[in-house]
């Protein structure tokens, strides 16, 4: 048996802050956006909430020789509940608003999002990240003063694990240290 001993006692109680996890939405083709290949917009200013729910799906089974049941994780049904100000000059907000106002469905209501763990040590400027597709479900767009869009980004299949460089907007499936 061994005991974990941190190399730096000051880091043992460090907790990630909300600013240590960044979300980027692919916005190629949105009016006013130009660039080669995929263009990623930071979901930052205007976004007041983007709360992830992994929604683990379980299956329970009790064996005849045991008093207690066992519960196993069988899959996930992830979603992000969000709130954003209707800042029409932000391309990722414009994309959500366009899905909502044009009542898009199916693949036309799906966005691609990257979630980046900025609290991890970068490798060559890239951070560990997850990229996935999410169906946009807008539940409301109203308020007394500023317009607020509320809803969910519902996971569509498995996320890809990889690396994202926020300074260049570059996604890679391979660890930068393997280059």
Give a written overview of the molecule.
This protein has 179 residues and is mainly β. It has one helix at residues 91-101, and strands spanning 21-26, 40-42, 47-53, 56-61, 70-76, 79-85, 110-117, 127-142, 148-155, 160-165, 170-172. Strands 1, 2, 3, 6, 7, 8, 9, 10 and 11 form a nine-stranded antiparallel beta sheet that branches. The protein has a two-stranded antiparallel sheet with strand order 4-5. It is globular, with a radius of gyration of 20 Å.
Spell out the blueprint of helices and strands:
Elements (H helix, E strand, L loop, with lengths): L20 E6 L13 E3 L4 E7 L2 E6 L8 E7 L2 E7 L5 H11 L8 E8 L9 E16 L5 E8 L4 E6 L4 E3 L7
Antiparallel strand pairs: 1-2, 1-7, 3-6, 4-5, 6-9, 7-8, 8-9, 8-10, 10-11
């Amino acid at each position: 048996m061994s005991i974990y001993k941190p190399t730096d006692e000051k880091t043992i109680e460090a907790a990630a802050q909300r600013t240590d996890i960044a979300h980027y939405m692919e916005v190629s083709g949105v009016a006013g956006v130009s660039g080669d290949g995929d263009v990623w917009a930071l979901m930052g200013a205007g976004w007041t909430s983007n709360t992830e729910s992994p929604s683990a799906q379980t299956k329970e089974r009790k064996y005849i020789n045991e008093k207690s049941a066992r519960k196993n994780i069988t899959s996930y049904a992830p979603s992000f509940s969000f709130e954003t100000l209707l800042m029409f000059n932000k391309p990722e907000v414009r994309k959500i608003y366009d899905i909502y106002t044009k009542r898009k469905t199916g693949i036309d209501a799906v966005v691609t999002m990257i979630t980046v763990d900025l609290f991890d040590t970068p490798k060559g400027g890239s951070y560990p990240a997850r990229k996935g597709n999410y169906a946009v479900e807008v539940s409301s767009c109203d308020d007394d003063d500023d317009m607020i869009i509320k809803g969910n980004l519902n996971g569509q299949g498995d996320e890809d694990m990889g690396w994202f460089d926020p300074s260049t907007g570059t996604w890679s499936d391979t660890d930068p240290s393997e280059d």
